[in-house]
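Action item from last week, closing it out:
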Amino acid sequence: MLFGQQANDGDGAVLWAAVADRLQRPLISQVAELSHEDGKVRGKRQTEFGYDVIEAPLPAVVAVSDAINVPRYPALKGIMGAKKKPQETLSLADLGVPAEEAGEAGSRTTVIALNDPPARGDLVKLEDDGSAAREDRRVPAGEAGSMKFVGFSRAPRRQAAEGRARRARQGRLARRGRGRRCSAPTSEGSPPTPAASAPARCT
């Protein structure tokens, strides 16, 4: 029996495990490569330490991961042609399934309640311009229990980048000017020319 990885709505990833337990058959999950021969199925799955290769006798339950293949998306011609294909609808009687064993009546699980997530309390958001670490926020007594720390938002990234570039330029200029003497060119017997009117020479 082949299963996918998980449902799109609840992301539970429990159906294949429940079916394997119900049928008392071996289970291989998160399979990325699948092969079979001599009445056995072999699945390969990736872990954080490498790959696991698991072999089980048939019949077995196999749940594949999204790495099992590359989906083939139909072209427009195939989509339009599929609309003309006949569709056969089977009833429970056609499948030989009693009505009391299908649908809500035959479900082995019960939904107790569906509720919206609880509303969040008052939030405090600090825009970080480089001084957020020194920000002193005094929460009035009685309000601390209804407030949650969301985090700092690094606003104006451009200003931070410009600040780093400016400091780097200043450092390069400081290193370049160490041990150098600069003077403006002067003519013989005349006072020094202001640096603003003539380029300086450094040695």
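Closing note: The domain at 1-68 is CATH 3.40.50.620 (Rossmann fold).
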